[in-house]
Amino acid sequence: MSLTIYEHETTGTLMEQGYVALQESLTVEQAIRYLREQAQDKENIHYVYMIDQKQQLTGVLSVRELLAAANTEILAKIMKRKIVYFPTDLDQEDAAKVFRDKDLVSIPVVNKSKQLIGIIQVEDIIDVIHQEADEDIGKLTASGKEINFHTKPMVAAGKRLPWLILLLFIGLISGGIMESFEETLETVVALAFFMPMIAGMTGNTGTQSLAVVVRGLVSEQLDLKKTSKLLWRELLVGIIIGITCAIIITVIAYVWRGSLMLGFIVGFSLLSTLIIGTLAGTIIPLILYKCKADPAVASGPLITTINDILSLLIYFGIATMFISKIM
pLDDT of 3-51, one tens digit each? Predict the structure, then answer.
């Protein structure tokens, strides 16, 4: 059977023929005899599948259950009729979730007539999990899901450029913000020293929240009903991180410049931006998920760029409000 007739990255392309199918009318003794004959040609036999005269899947038994049954028993009477199986057009990522939830080592694949046509082994699904993880990492870093060590430079650059060009233009907004607060920056030059730290910390905390949300959505541990709980938790996380870092940087700014007001401006700005950065990293992927878009598209670079803009606005906004107190 050619697997090329099935859509890419579906169960039809993952299945193999290394299974044992038995007529449900056979006795256990006949089944074991047949199993012994087939064992040499099959790499891994964990289950035997029962079919009827139309080749339709009707039941399943583990090899252990088959060997433990009485020789005179009819398979149809002892087989399990509640079967986990895949159609040929199921997405491979969904198939991986079934393996994870059901804790099975192989699952049969049937056609539209429910005829047994193959099985998928857990070993094949492990490869799928690695592949899907690579794709998600590629999306999170905006580097492209098909890029690896063997990708040609021109191809790799072509995958990354669209994102980076978009972020380049968005990043120009940061330059515009700095220009609009040029007078503030010239008045208190020390403010420039803390700019990279505030922007970097905000981007980092946003990316961390993004990773938590995407992981929860992909693993189906998180759904839209739990979003309010997640938002409150991430808000609390942002506040705790923000207060801790704000206290540290306030002390550093005061010791370095001898200005308590400068320490307050930097510390309060960092507290505010870390909270907002955490919420941005949480809310953006949830919005995309709600809009039926892949949440992993809310890539780390995009979150970082947005948080850069927000952090500069907050930092210079607060500095402008209290600049007279520093002088």
Answer: 567 888 788 888 988 899 999 999 999 999 998 888 777 777 889 999 9
Q: Which bin fits 258, alpha (ψ -120 to 50), beta or left (φ > 0)?
A: left
Nearest to 213 by CA among 223, 200, 204, 203: 223
* Strand 20-23 with 47-51, pairing: parallel
Distances (CA, A) of 34 to 38, 118, 326: 6, 18, 89
CA distance 38 to 34: 6
**CA–CA distance from 200 to each of 110, 227, 311 (Å)?**
52, 26, 9
Q: Where are the domains of the chain?
A: 3-130, 152-326
Topology of the domain covering 3-130: CBS-domain (3.10.580)
Q: How confident is the model at residue 160 (pLDDT cuts 50, 70, 90)?
A: low
Alpha-carbon distance 119 to 83, whole Å? Answer: 13
Name which residue leads in pLDDT, 169 or 57: 57
Name residue, tokens 């991986």: 96
Tokens of 282: 């949480």
**Pair of tokens at residue 68:** 């433990």
CA 117 to chain centre: 31
Class of domain 152-326: mainly alpha
Residue 236 CA, distance from chain mean position = 23
Model pTM score: 0.58
Residue among 305, 309, 282 nearest 295 (CA): 282
Residue 247 structure tokens:
């206290």
**CB atoms inside a 10 Å sphere around CB 269:** 25
| Contact assessment for residue 207 and residue 303, using Cβ atoms and an 8 Å cutoff | yes
Are 92 and 10 a contacting pair, CB within 8 Å? Answer: yes
